[in-house]
Amino acid sequence: MRVEGGATFIYRQHEGARGNTADRFAAPARFAKWLQYDQRIFRELQKDMPLAEYLPPGHDLATSSRLALIERFTLMASHLLVDEALEDLTLLARLADQGALTGAERRPLRLIAYADPWYGCGSVWDRPEFTTRLRQLATTSPLVRAIRAEAIRSFLRGVRSEGLGRLPLVAQRTLRLLTATSLTRRAPDRAG
Fold it and tell me: What ranges do the domains of the chain cover?
């Protein structure tokens, strides 16, 4: 869906309380509130908008259904809608066409893996329920394995462009995608 013209809304920045009288919140909570409302909007879009509407111009659903699912998956993931993103990954895993990713399919995958959503609370790549299910789907689906590999390559591109400060996050996310091992260590229980 494309909207022609200029900005569709103006967002005023200030440090005071915001929101309407029924839903007031402090300035530091603004990103969490944006996420809450964005998730409501994008859940409705996923439910009501035809899959063909997710396609870039010049593509039709008959020949690009895989691309449409990837576009919708990345849109849902960018708004931290884990369940909705996983629904699309599951649909992708069930497709008959499990061939290599096309350039058009790689582009949205790179974007979602390269940059974190602006809400300031991480990414789907940090959510154990997401990465666990992705790993499970990758065991049976070459397409989901390719999606996982593309994400890892994009994580690494982030290190190249943003520097080594991003390396610990990249290592953590990569491990989550590749192994079921917990990344935290617990001290052994000691009796007595």
Answer: 27-178
